[in-house]
Write a structure and sequence with these properties.
Helix content: 40-55%
Strand order of the largest sheet: 2-3-1-4-5
Mean pLDDT: 88
Radius of gyration: 20 Å
Shape: globular
CATH class of the largest domain: Alpha Beta
CATH architecture of the largest domain: 3-Layer(aba) Sandwich
Strand content: 15-25%
Low-confidence stretches: none
CATH topology of the largest domain: Rossmann fold
Largest sheet: 5 strands, parallel
Order of helices and strands: EHEHHHEHEHHEHHEEHEE
CATH superfamily of the largest domain: P-loop containing nucleotide triphosphate hydrolases
Number of helices: 10
Distance between the termini: 45 Å
Number of strands: 9
Length: 270
């Protein structure tokens, strides 16, 4: 078993490819809307969650912290959704949101010639050729800005992926077969060790999400790591009263076996 992430530009065939791969392997096919709906269970607007995944920051982004909270909730929802493997996720930054999830994640990127994308977009959007090209270019630029701002990486950097497939001379069905054949290799098996890594990622993401929606700690931006159920939290506190609240919220999460708060920086220590 494994997890496959498919990154793609607008109208590059990513949805068709994801559905084909999922059908061929017997996996679940998960898109952004599924994750947004799950993340909204934390009590936030689905529209605002979608904006956090799509819209790049402005020069003076007044809502930077709010976007941090939304992405924390999205990451928690995604890791929980795919934690047992056998899943194909096609959506923005799946490979980045699942970073640290282990070697069983196959990070793929699909690219396609402009004419392929224009044809697909015109069928869906019913726009003129000029309008479609402008739309595609704007969406690609937004995604590039989004990943650079939030993760400090270039969205198109091939080193972020295990496999890059170009649909110029390979069609969707052939690309599907290439991915499926790769997943069947042992290097992407979902071993007990891989499951433990995913469980840790899901636990850390859940702790971080619960801290992000807790009124007493929602203003903080914290790093959370889990290893074998032992959770470590790093970050800077505003006041000492936040320390017991962080401890209370974290220890309520099922699966946590120990909590390390030694790397939290208090105002007195800063």
């Amino acid at each position: 078993m494994s997890i496959i992430t498919i990154s793609r530009g607008t109208f590059s065939g990513g949805k068709l490819l994801a559905e084909c791969v999922a059908d061929k392997l017997g996996y679940r096919c998960i898109d952004r809307d599924v994750i947004v709906e799950r993340a909204a269970a934390f009590g936030v607007s689905q529209n605002e969650l979608r904006d956090a995944l799509q819209k790049p920051p402005t020069f003076l982004d007044r809502f930077k912290h709010k976007k941090y909270i939304y992405l924390v909730l999205i990451q928690s929802a995604l890791t929980e959704e795919v934690r047992t493997g056998r899943a194909v996720y096609h959506g923005n930054a799946g490979h980045l949101l699942l970073k640290g999830g282990g070697m069983h994640i196959l990070r793929t990127r699909i690219i396609a010639p402009l004419e392929f994308r224009v044809r697909m977009a015109q069928e869906r959007l019913k726009m003129s050729r000029a309008e479609v090209i402008d739309y595609i270019q704007r969406m690609d630029q937004d995604r590039r800005k989004w990943t650079q701002y939030l993760y400090g990486v270039d969205w198109g950097d091939p080193t972020l992926y295990d496999m890059v497939l170009n649909l110029e001379y390979v069609d969707v069905s052939e690309a599907c077969e290439i991915i499926a054949a790769t997943v069947r290799q042992r290097c992407f098996e979902f071993t007990p060790e891989c499951q433990a890594v995913m469980n840790d990622l899901a636990l850390a993401s859940r702790v971080r999400a619960n801290l992000a929606i807790n009124p007493a700690t929602s203003h903080l931006e914290l790093d959370v790591v889990s290893r074998g159920g032992r959770v470590s939290i790093k970050g800077k506190l505003s006041n000492l009263n936040e320390l017991p609240e962080i401890q209370r919220v974290a220890t309520e999460i099922p699966g946590l076996t120990a909590l390390d708060l030694d790397e939290l920086v208090t105002p007195a220590a800063s």
